[in-house]
């Protein structure tokens, strides 16, 4: 009986520890009606015990998480992985698209990003954006509209407007994911964007999963063993230093 109690106690301790590591805070930016946006923010486990700046990953969700129920954000993508106890070495900012039928309001997202950068210890040279489905369109749009902001861009199962790719930063790296069996957003949309970037001489990688469809491609992409390191290595600082020499 005593051993059973000890085992249950150990399980409870492990569950508490996991919940601490997986904690992400729900917050609201509400400067005015036009800028109101709910979001989750995840801080690395050692954030409170250190003084340095951290890379930040802006995560833009798919259409199912849109609306005004903040807990929907916890059901997919990076927020779900955090809820499941996965730890990351970077800050994760996950805004909620308030529009259930429209793309992300990227100007509002940028206002939120600037606000979070100001309030948290963020290394501004190491900001990347990851987006899935509708959020992937948002990732493409943000890379085109704010070319100096992002060091890395990871669109998963989404497309964009290829003629605007010339607006993206010359030193930004792109890692594009898509499922060959996607019957919601055609693989050709990602291919068109990748070919456009290649024509511009950009740093771009395309990963296609032959057996993935639209609903499971994000899980495959975010489980890529090298993705976390890839995001950690992205930086605009080296490019800036090279340009000033």
From TrEMBL:
Keyword Hydrolase in the entry? The reply is yes
Q: Which UniProt keywords apply?
A: Hydrolase, Signal
Q: Which domain of life is it from?
A: Bacteria
> Domain Dienelactone hydrolase, which positions?
115-215
Q: Which GO terms describe its molecular function?
A: hydrolase activity
Q: Which PANTHER family match?
A: BLL1128 PROTEIN, UNNAMED PRODUCT-RELATED
Q: What is this protein called?
A: Alpha/beta hydrolase family protein
**Chain segments annotated as coiled-coil in the UniProt record:** none
User: One Pfam match, by short name?
Assistant: DLH
First and last residue of the signal peptide: 1-22
InterPro entries per record: AB_hydrolase_fold (IPR029058), Dienelactn_hydro (IPR002925), Plant_Biomass_Hydrol_Est (IPR050955)
